[in-house]
## 1
Amino acid sequence: MFFGEYEHSLDSKNRLTLPSCFREHFEDKQPIKFFMTRGFDQCLALYPSDSWKSELEKLKHNSYFESDVRKFHRLLYSKTSPVTCDRQGRILITDKFKKEAKITKDVTLVGLDNKIEIWDPTLWEKFNEMHHDSFEKIAESLGVTNENLK
């Protein structure tokens, strides 16, 4: 499970070092394999291989005969690439992915349960500012209460 918010920078070869608390989930697996794809709200989403396969299984229940399903599949699959984490805990973020998420050098990593989001820090800050005050209202609309979290 991934959680937390971390500031990092890409190196001169566009490699991103994942925080050690994210890498420790994979101590027994080398090399660490991920799938990188476009996320929602203009970020990148990084899924461990097992989590990605689980997400794809959920998509199989949608009918390809529906126009929106086809569009979504095309947009998702065409913007997805396998990524391998090297022994130093680094992953490569290609120029295409950098452009997709408006990333230059600095990034904010956000752990979200079974995935990691990679944000341009300015976009992440704007997202937080926009939604910070509505946290309780969003939780309420989803039926999430303090009782659910115990």
## 2
Amino acid sequence: MTPSHYVRTRLPPDLIRIVRLPDRIGVTQARMAGSRSATGSVLIFLDSHCEGAPDWMRPLLHRIKHRRDAVLTPVIDVINEHTFKYQARDVQWDSAPEREKKRRGSNISPTRRVH
């Protein structure tokens, strides 16, 4: 069974669009091609090793609803590439300065762009 067939037989046709490119162009260019083909109001890109845990998308969409120009990076669960073991919340970026962390008041509050 091909990946396309698998997806098409398990998800509603208006939920997902598969874009086939004639050549290998790299992940960034492939995502750009996908974004040009997209019709939804929100784009989410996940790599094959990422796993969406229950309710992981709700806080992202809530932030986007209130700030349309937000660029969000979730803390995601991953599947280990060597063992295929599920690893909860394995990827985290924590580069906000202390003053910004204090201003936010909560770990789930948005971080302002830091120059």
